[in-house]
Design goal:
Length: about 130
C-alpha cells in the first residue's frame, strides 16, 4: 500500500459541490461518471496531485447521511490543504468567496488559516515550514 487514494465527502448536491471544489478551491475534476443507480462517481483533487488523495463527492442518500453533511468531523478541522504559496492561495480563495474563520496565523509549523467549505466542514489552508 502506497497512499490513500480517496476520501468520501458526503455532499448535498453533486453540481454545487463540483463548482465549489473546482472554482473556489481550484481543484481538478478527475472523474464524473453516471452510474446505473442514478448516482454519480465524482472525484476531485488539487492540481498536480496525480497520485495524491482525492475527494469522492457522494450525494447524501437518506436522512442519516443528510444530517452528516457539513458535520463529518464533529466540528473539528478534518481536512488539511497544503500549499506552497499561502498568501497567494489565501487571497485567491478569499476572492472566490471562501469563508475563512480566522485571520492567517504564523505558527512554528507554518502559516495556517481555518476555512469552511460550502457545507461547513472545516479545513486548514496550510503552508508547512
Amino acid at each position: 500500500m502506497s497512499y490513500i487514494a480517496l476520501i468520501t465527502l458526503v455532499v448535498r448536491d453533486y453540481d454545487e459541490a463540483i463548482a465549489f471544489y473546482t472554482d473556489a478551491l481550484g481543484f481538478e475534476l478527475i472523474e464524473d461518471t453516471d452510474r446505473a443507480d442514478g448516482t454519480r462517481w465524482i472525484v476531485v483533487r488539487p492540481p498536480g496531485a496525480a497520485h495524491g488523495t482525492g475527494l469522492l463527492l457522494a450525494r447524501a442518500k437518506d436522512e442519516r447521511q443528510r444530517a452528516s453533511v457539513g458535520a463529518q468531523t464533529g466540528g473539528r478541522v478534518g481536512f488539511f490543504l497544503h500549499t506552497e504559496d499561502f498568501a497567494a492561495d489565501h487571497a485567491r480563495m478569499t476572492a472566490a468567496g471562501v469563508r475563512f474563520l480566522e485571520e492567517p496565523r504564523h505558527e512554528p509549523y507554518g502559516s495556517v488559516a481555518v476555512f469552511e467549505d460550502l457545507y461547513g466542514n472545516r479545513w486548514d489552508l496550510l503552508q508547512p515550514k
